[in-house]
User: Fold this.
Amino acid sequence: MKTQREKQVRRAQRTRIRLRKLANGRPRLSVFRSSKNISAQIIDDVAGKTIASASSMEEAAKAEHGKGWDVQAAAVVGKLIAERAVKEGVSEVIFDRGGYIYHGRVKALAEAAREGGLKF
Assistant:
């Protein structure tokens, strides 16, 4: 019987395999969600580099919204990642929810990133 962590890694890998086929060279917006924080990275898989990142643990996110575990904090992180990506010249990405359900904090981050100028 698989542990909970092994199941989560398997779901994330299944999602990433599907995304690689659909990416067509676009960078990947990867989301990590823990019980207390949320973070996002824009990763160029071809070059193997992180283009931009944002987290609810950063001072910029804490200044705008104190808590890191609710939907508003996820929206702040989505806005930050979109600003940083546009600054780096990235406008189109593919969304990697990392095996998490597209609901709640993950959805709020995605919608805020779209409002910030990212297309996916």
User: Anything to note?
Assistant: The chain has one domain: 4-115. Helices lie at 4-23, 59-64, 71-87, 105-115. The two ends are 36 Å apart (CA to CA).
